[in-house]
Amino acid sequence: MTSDPHIKARRENIFVAIGVVFVVACLPLFVTDVYVQNVLVLTLMYAALSQSWNILSGFCGQISLGHALYFGTGAYVTELLFTKFGVAPWFGMPAGGLVAAVIAAAVGYPCFRLKGHYFVIATIVIAEAGYLLMLNWDYAGAAQGIDIPVRADSWAKFQFLRSKLPYFYFALGFAFVAWLVTYMIEESRWSYWWRAAKDNADAAESLGVDVFRSKMAAAALSAFLTAVGGGFYAQFVSYIDPESVMGFQFSLLMALPAVLGGLGTLWGPAVGAGILIPLTELTRSFAGGSGKGLDLIIYGLLVMGIALGRPEGIVGAVTKRARKGRP
Amino acid sequence: MTAQAVAQSLVSGLLMGLIYALVAAGLALVFGLMNVVNFAHGEFLMTAMYAAFGLFVAVSLDPLLAAPFVAAAMFIFGSVVYLGVVRFAMSASANAGMVQIFATFGLGVVMRGLAQLLFTPNYRSIPHSWLGGRTMQIAGVYLPAPQLAGACVSLATFGALWLIINRTDFGRALEATREDSGAVALVGIDRKRIFALGWGLGAALVGLAGAVLAIFFYIYPDVGASFSLIAYVTVALGGFGSVFGAFAAGILVGLVEAGSALVLPASLKYVGVYALYLLVVLVRPRGLFGSL
Amino acid sequence: MDDGKEREPRMKLNRREIMTGAAVLAAAPRVARAQGAGEILIGAVFPMTGSTAQTGLDAKNAIETAAAIINDKTDLDLPLARGAGLPGFGGAKVRVIYADHQGDPQKGRAEAERLITQEKAVALIGCYHSAVSATVSQTAERYALPFMCADSSSPSLSRRGLKFFFRASAHDEMFSSAMFDLMDSLRAKGQKIETLALFHEDTIFGADSANVQTKLAGERGYRIACDVKYRANSPSLTTEVQQIKSAAADVLMPSSYTTDGILLVRTMNELGYKPRAIVAQAAGFSEQALYDAVGDLLHGAITRGSFSLDLAQKRPMVARVNDLFKARAGKDLNDNSAREFMALIVLADGVNRAGTTDGEAIRAALTATDIPGDRTIMPWKGVRFDATGQNNGCDPVLLQYDGRKFVTVFPLLAAISEPVWPMNS
Questions:
Q1: Contacts with C203 from chain A: Cβ below 8 Å
Q2: Nearest-CA distance from B38 to chain C in Å?
Q3: Residue C250 carries which DSSP code?
Q4: In chain C, pLDDT over 70 holds for what percent of residues?
Q5: A299–chain B Cβ distance below 8 A for any pair
Q6: How far apart are CA C329 and CA C57, in angstroms?
Q7: Closest residue of A to C114, CA-based?
Q8: C21, A275: Cβ pair inside 8 Å?
Q9: Which of B16, B142, B148, B271 to mutate to test the interface with C (most CBs of C within 10 A)?
């Protein structure tokens, strides 16, 4: 079977991924500047988040611009458990994931029958409603948010005063897990059903129940991973409020890398995040202090240019060129 | 809460709803025409408001009189945006939906940045205009002149739109292009031209809305955000492809917003609007009057 | 499904893309400038884009005004104003580097780390948004260098047990207490003030303000006739205004930024509601833009503030500092910009006395700060930090808008006239 080119390619993907993880894991040996390390952590986190988003919106085809809801759920569950009940984030993050998965299933159950923009807008308004509720929920700190005191480095509490490395390696592992989940889904029966349902209405009909169940599962999985990312972000920043973890901009930020890198591709989110997040951060740091809006102009032009110039995403564009180049 | 206060809220909600409909009209037209959601809609509105403000500062033109000029300028702007950006997004070889969303979203970010660069982030407003600050009272219910004017402009606009769509060649071409953009090429309709005019018309409608809002609303680079989500919800609630759905939905959104603020804490009033949207599309997945 | 032949090149190129991404990162511009000889760097983190960008720009102008006064020889009676630069460092100049946090606590923290580790800032100033001040002050704490909170007024900020947190100006409890002191004094003179209408936005600022006001009203015997928490930047405030109109309270107490302030005042006018009195929690009600828009509807409105131009009558220096600021910003100093100005002066004074760029030493010097009120531009008793890093000598003032300008009406020490009450009399 090893001669089967398809299996060979699958295996190669795994080797490449492990190689990339290894190379990235060595980066801190050369990059000691905390600002750059901070950018690396964010890049890996958005790679993982975008990978999670890609499962539902890229592979499954249900475009969600409301993933901030799951991100915020993860952040809030983790920190409410931590600050109110002393539960370590190691348990809080998966707990947040489970809560978000349940919410995603509850949202998906009625909404999956909505088509196109009706679904997109439904995800936006549900996330916005969640944001407004958090803004008014006094127990969870309402608008004042939750300040997470950090007094000493602690693995048990997963908080570190100055070092970014623990966060870096967590984010790297998180990104790899999200990649691995996508890798497994790409070849699964689900993926086959979704494509069949997208391409062929009759197939969709006959697979109806299976497709619906698998979509629910995809939504739950996507939300679970996104919420783990939210819990991680809350620990990383050590302060959360509704605006900073549930704002609409997060929904866009999670979608952008996947769109840029290649919607519904295995490598798209990682490639997209690797380009977009450093550029976003550097633009703000070096053009933002002027107060003239230059960073917005550069960022907006970048998004526009990429969307228009590479509609199939970078991964897609590269594949296409490679195909053309072949006899 | 007295009956009078409830009446006041509902009347205000109705007036505001007509203004929401006006704000959403351009978005609905462009979506109905070519299935593109303009994620820079809020920034179009911001641009129109700055245009009205600029005319007021430069030549002391009252925003009500400035409205046609703002609409004309926005018509050109809308056509240019179609030819310069949207055309390419629509011909994207893959993921057309996402490309359109992010191309127009990026455009919106650039417009906000440019507004900050050109006009500074300061809050502007038109302190004195014919209608600004005037109000009339009928049976204890106040009817503010600016909103009343906005509601009238909204009614007139939708009336004119109805005439354009149903009684002119351009309207028939629009409709034909919407229904089957492949076939129209065969009967000699230039699709690109229709689309460019359609975008121009959509932006001109935003121009009218911006001029009306400039009478009583504040103006700054991020002002579009206050209206854009409501505009999207309005269009989707009315049903994509139906301009008049947007009209009905705008009024409904205005009334539900005012009603929600009466029964819920005011800070949660949009939860009522969002619930309305979900309720409607779960019962009618194509919105109230949608054809797509 | 693609077959393997097509997959292989895809991956190779991916690898290249990924490596490019990594290379970009590794080569991230290391603009770290060595601490120039004769320069002391201070990092300022403010919103420079987004809906509060104007505040960030005003802050920059205010801080630059302060830096110029410190660096140049002047005859103003402010700390460090008379000489050129910091005498403790042989006349070194203060240079402030600005960073944009866009109102996001994460970005604020990242920029703070950049300013500390790359730019080698010796202390930080910020951040307007209380949420961002929370993360930036935590970062300063972790790097053991001082954070001077210029203009965030959330009381909780100074109650987190941070060693390196300093706030020279008042927090919301002090501000709201002053507002109630004014009402108490009017009551003592026989004015009927029984009921209050709170009108506040659903942000950390609005919530903090309303919480304190609710508590103080209970303690001092006022009844809250209605408490309207509204969605910030709503397109319409009609129903909300209808509610405060129906409540017909003796005093309307808004906690709103400029945008909602403009819409609030216009909507009140359109619904025929003339409140008996307005006592505002500054923010929008101390911004010129609000009075440009709706000033003619606000004759007699009172707002709390940190700063009053009237002080120039007793202390001419205030007018001169204001002129310097106006030359840069095109407007008068206000509640926020005056606090930002003083923040740099107080911070630089501490750095100068420390005589070293060591964070602990600067912290020690700041805790020993003792600036008398008349050597500030504020109506303060003085600047002395308590154990939490809060200055308790920063009495707020209450200012009444007379149709053209603000007149200080409270407390008696700073007042130049009696408050007009009710506002439309």
A1: 143, 243
A2: 20
A3: S
A4: 91
A5: yes
A6: 9
A7: A35
A8: yes
A9: B142
For the cut 70, the answer to whether the pLDDT of residue A222 exceeds it is yes
| CA nearest to B220, candidates C261, C278, A132 | C261
Predicted interface score ipTM higher than 0.85: yes
Q: Read off the tokens for B283.
A: 């019962």
Is residue B241 within 8 angstroms of chain A, CB to CB? no
pLDDT, residue C13, reads 40
Domain spans of chain C? 39-170+313-394, 173-305+398-410
- Give the DSSP H or E segment for C205: helix C204-220
Q: How far is CA A1 from CA A4, A5, A8, A11, C9, in A?
A: 5, 9, 9, 12, 21
Q: What is the tally of structural domains in chain A?
A: 1
**C173-305+398-410: same fold as C39-170+313-394?**
yes
Chain C residues whose C-beta is within 8 A of a chain B C-beta are: 49-54, 57, 202, 228-231, 233-236, 238-240, 242-243, 245-246, 258-259, 262-263, 266-267, 269-272, 287, 289-290, 292-297
Of A35, A271, A296, the CB nearest to C114: A35
DSSP codes of every residue in C58-121 = HHHHHHHHHHHHHHS----SSTTTSSSSBGGGTSBEEEEEEEE-TT-HHHHHHHHHHHHHTS--
User: DSSP assignment of A196-237, as one string?
Assistant: HHHH-HHHHHHTHHHHHHHHHHHHHHHHHHHHHHHHHHHHHH
Q: Is residue A298 part of a domain?
A: no
DSSP sequence for C346-360: HHHHHHHHH-S--HH
- CA pseudo-torsion sign C256, C262, C263, C267: positive
Interface probe with C: pick from A244, A271, A295, most Cβ of C within 10 Å: A244
Q: What is the pLDDT of residues C179-190, one digit of tens each?
A: 999 999 999 999
Confidence (pTM): 0.89
Nearest residue in chain C measured CA to CA from A150 = C138
Domain C173-305+398-410: give its CATH code: 3.40.50.2300
Tokens representing A300? Answer: 């907006």
Please answer whether residues A215 and A112 qualify as being in contact, where contact means their C-beta atoms are separated by less than 8 angstroms: yes
**pLDDT tens-place string over residues C19-68:** 444 444 444 443 334 344 579 999 999 998 877 888 899 999 999 999 99
Of C14, C135, C202, the CB nearest to A271: C14
Give the domain range for residue A23: 5-251
> Are A122 and B281 in contact (CB < 8 Å)?
yes
Q: Name the nearest CA neighbour of C307 among C377, C244, C238.
A: C377
Task: Identify the CATH homologous superfamily for domain C39-170+313-394.
Answer: Response regulator (3.40.50.2300)
- Say yes or no to pLDDT of A233 above 90: yes
The dihedral region occupied by C161, where left means phi > 0, alpha psi between -120 and 50, and beta the remainder, is left
Residues 223-252 of A with CB under 8 A from B: 248, 252
Going B130 to B134 to B138 to B143, the CA torsion angle's sign is positive
Tell if the CB–CB gap between B218 and C293 is shorter than 8 Å. Answer: yes
What pLDDT score was predicted for residue B81?
93
> Which amino acid would we find at residue C26?
A
Chain B partners within 8 Å of C259 (Cβ)? 123, 218, 220, 223
- Is B123–C259 a contact, with Cβ atoms under 8 angstroms apart? yes
**B147 burial level (CB within 10 Å; 0-12, 13-18, 19+):** buried
